[in-house]
Amino acid sequence: MKKISIKDIWNNKIKINSLITIKGWIKSKRNSKLGFSFLSVYDGSHINNIQIIAKKKISNYNDILNLTTGCSVEIKGKLILSIGKKQKYEINANTIKIIGWVYKKESYPISLKKHSNSFLRSVAHLRPRTNLISVISRIRHFLSYEIHSYLNDNGYYLINTPLITTLNTEGSGDLFYINTKKDNKNNFFQKKAFLTVSGQLHLETYACALSKVYTFGPTFRAENSNTRKHLSEFWMLELEKSFSNLKNINIISEKLIKHLFKKVIEKCDSDINFLSNNINCNIVKKLKKDINSEFIKINYSEAIEILYKKNKLFNRKIFWGSEIYKEHEIYLTNNYFNCPIIINNYPKKIKAFYMRLNDDNKTVAAMDILFPNVGEIIGGSQREERLNILDLKLKEMNFKKKDYWWYRDLRKYGTVPHSGFGLGFERLISYITGIKNIKDLIPFPRTPKSAYF
Ligand code: 4AD
Predict the structure, then answer these.
(1) What digits encode the pLDDT tens for the residues 369-424?
(2) Which domains does the chain have, with CATH numbers?
(3) Atom 15 of ligand 1 has which residue's CA nearest to it?
(4) pTM beyond cutoff 0.70
(5) What separation in angstroms does the CA of 149 have from each of 10, 258, 262?
(6) Please, are residues 8 and 51 in contact by the beta-carbon 8 Å criterion?
(7) Which atom of ligand 1 is nearest to the CA of 423?
(8) What angle in degrees, to the nearest 10, is found between the helix axes of 246-267 and 283-292?
(9) CA of 342 to the centre of ligand 1 (A)
């Protein structure tokens, strides 16, 4: 008897009347007075459960009557067409082996009733058993797979940049130090080390040799931000391309996003369907609209002009030179344009040292891509490839030239224009799924004061 995944049944890969084995967990059970039980079983491979008919003649029928949500089972039986209207297939069980009971004296946290997402976070070890988290897990897996596949098909090489670093990419103070001793000499690495905030600087070294590269992994920020869009550990896709400028990464990132939207609609249809029925009925419509229209592209100065006129709406007042905060992002994407937008050419004072200075001497060739409801999902720039200007920027920001010696070497030895971006993976999933809190989009969220599990 062939062991199969439940998804094979729903994808019509199993012939009717085949004898099959499935292994999984009980979602629900209904005992009929007519001498049989209906078990609804899932194995995580598909959002749909499979209904099992267990007749009284099965030798351990009395045990079957005691099965509860969460018990694990192995079922051997025949796949048949269901006479019920709710599902196409069911399994007529010959044997049901009970693999693991749910302890009767403890109440099972993932009971059948609807649980809030915040409660589910408190049982993060059990929450993948819910429909919602299993849907998210499969979509997350698929997007991750599709990112690798798309970039491979387009000639990008995956570079595994280090997680332990000693050079601060973003120049911010939000670092998780991993030092064992106060003085540098006695430290494991004999200098201050921390978890990476971005693999970009290391990635640039490989872009300046392999031309088209990317990295995709966890990134760490010790920002004390308790919002629905911030994690202390999040996943970032970073892409870096030599011989390219700001306009090129506008195009590359838009194409990549649209490709992912297209594929997720195509390949994750049953999971997207679940989200449409339970989270937001407009998911597919929204993604299709984005696929079929060009993202709006404006300069920072134009964005400020639009926002300045609406300053009375905002808690943080806007002026040329100010940051564009979440409330402004949402006004631009939700109210003004009602679509994703790419903002280009930010003031140099509010952006990182490595961004290429524009001819106006005031702005840098940076871009952020903002999405309705979520805000910024992508941040990127053309990198400063001219050593003399890079050195001026380092000086202006009080960074030591010697700390950046290897990064500066790239500008000394065959420098090239190059550009790249970072995409916040959980924020992308938030936009696609319509789930607002990114703590629900990573298996074990880490946030200030919270690293349980
Ligand atoms: O804009 P950021 O800080 O860009 C960089 O780190 C560049 N070095 C990337 C590059 O050019 N290679 O971060 C990139 C993206 C943001 O747009 C956002 O989507 C996400 O990472 N992000 C976060 N996501 C979740 N939690 C946080 N605390 C995040 N901080 C940034």
Answers:
(1) 999 999 999 999 999 999 999 999 999 999 999 999 999 999 999 999 999 999 99
(2) 2-108 (2.40.50.140), 127-440 (3.30.930.10)
(3) 424
(4) yes
(5) 25, 14, 14
(6) no
(7) 15
(8) 140
(9) 15
- Give, as one character, the DSSP assignment of residue 406: H
Neighbours of 174 (CB within 10 A): 15
One-letter amino acid for residue 107 of the chain: S
Q: What is the pLDDT of residues 184-243, one digit of tens each?
A: 888 899 988 999 999 999 999 999 999 999 999 999 999 988 899 999 999 999 999 999
Task: State both tokens at 435.
Answer: 């789930």
194: which 2 tokens? 């921390």
Instruction: Check pocket membership of 239 for ligand 1, CB cut-off 6 A.
Output: no
In this prediction, residue 33 has a pLDDT band, given cuts at 50, 70 and 90, of confident
What pLDDT, on the 0 to 100 scale, is given for residue 126? Answer: 97
Tokens of 245: 């400028």
CB-based contact 300:343 (threshold 8 Å):
yes
Determine if ligand 1 sits within 6 Å of the CB of residue 445.
Answer: no
For residue 217, give the nearest of 231, 200, 236, 201 by alpha carbon: 236
Distance CA 258, CA 299 (A): 22
The DSSP secondary structure of 161-176, one letter per residue, reads --SEESS-SS--S---
Amino acid at 424: G
CA-based torsion, 343, 348, 351, 354: positive or negative: positive
Instruction: Compute the radius of gyration of the chain from its Cα atoms.
Output: 26
* Structural contact between residues 362 and 382, judged by C-beta atoms closer than 8 angstroms: no
Ligand 1 contacts CB of residue 221 (under 6 A) = yes
DSSP state of 231: -
Structure tokens at 51: 């209904």
Count, residues in the chain: 453
